[in-house]
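Typical record is below.
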Amino acid sequence: MKIRALILIGLMAIVSISANVFTQEAPTRRPDVIFVPTPDEVVAAMLEVTRVTKDDVVYDLGCGDGRIPVAAAGKYGARAVCIDIDPQRIKEANENVAKNGVGNLVRVLHADLFETDISEATVVTLYLLPSLNVKLIPTLQKMKPGTRVVSHAFDMGNCKPEQELDVNGRKVYYWTVPMNCQD
């Protein structure tokens, strides 16, 4: 009887270890920012200034409810990826994707935007704090030349935007990789 119990415990440990190896665990870090939705007119301006097309792959870092990727997929036919660390935002993004019927074009990742490979992006959208935008500069500068980057409300410190828009009193900043950054 004791041998069976030990074998069972051993098998359970192997199954538990195997499950952790083969499944990606959700990030446990708290979100860096609170969720504030980007107004629809700002979403439209962000996608227009980056000239999104059906050939693009749009990554929204800190996607919130997924409205930017959903709009990129719905209006332009672009593939898009939502990345957020907050489980509630992931739930909302998945619901938004389903409600708008763009599940064939939009992936939702419960992940840390600082630890996720975004190299396939041709467009990166942001609505983060200035310090987080600056922290992303090294990652963005390594992206394929010509990748477009757009930020709602906040710039990137010493990286001079190519365009700065005013959308009903809200700022939108636009860069192309390699970005013009001063030391």
